[in-house]
User: Which sequence fits this backbone?
């Protein structure tokens, strides 16, 4: 590409040869929109979501003590979170019933993702506390991130951008419909 004809310019106004993949929805995450500023359950998105209709809250499945929801800022398509209904921050605060159900829902999330999207592997985990990397430290949530061989391409490494091939609403509908299959 001829740099003089490029539609893009560097920080000082010179054209460059870079193509741009705009992801404006990520700005909400970067700015911390919808992220609680304190430990209160009144402003916690994980406490608000169960009060919404499943499609509006991106809820895939509801259990007795925990529910499964799509991550609003996913690392990959189908990135789920298993959350207790109770507003607790730490794994050690779970009741035995909550711990068992979170484990059971995590297993079912993996089965469903394998069935629907042919996930070849998973990253599963909880980031405990702000220092541990929790984006919302006040409410416990376990990530279930589907992975595929070769899915970590140059975009996140060089471009600091994730590409997702499916809208969250379409992913939620697909997973919710296949949950009990």
Assistant:
């Amino acid at each position: 590409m001829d740099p003089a004809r490029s539609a893009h310019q560097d920080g000082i106004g010179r054209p460059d040869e870079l193509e741009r993949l705009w992801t404006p929805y990520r700005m909400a995450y970067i700015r911390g929109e919808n992220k609680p500023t304190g430990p209160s359950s009144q402003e916690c998105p994980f406490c608000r979501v169960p009060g919404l209709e499943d499609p509006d809250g991106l809820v895939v499945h509801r259990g007795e003590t925990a529910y499964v929801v799509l991550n609003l800022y996913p690392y990959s398509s189908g990135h789920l979170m298993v959350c207790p209904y109770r507003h607790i921050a730490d794994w050690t605060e779970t009741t035995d019933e909550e711990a068992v159900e979170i484990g059971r829902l995590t297993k079912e999330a993996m089965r469903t993702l394998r069935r629907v999207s042919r996930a070849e592997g998973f990253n599963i985990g909880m980031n405990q506390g702000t220092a541990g990397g929790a984006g919302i430290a006040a409410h416990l949530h376990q990530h279930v991130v589907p992975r595929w061989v070769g899915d970590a391409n140059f975009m996140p490494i060089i471009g600091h951008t994730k590409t997702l091939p499916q809208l969250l609403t379409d992913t939620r509908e697909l997973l919710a419909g296949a949950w009990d299959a």
In short: The longest strand covers residues 142-147. The helical segments are 26-31, 45-48, 54-57, 96-117, 154-159, 168-178. The domain at 40-178 is CATH 3.30.428.10 (HIT family, subunit A). The two ends are 50 Å apart (CA to CA).
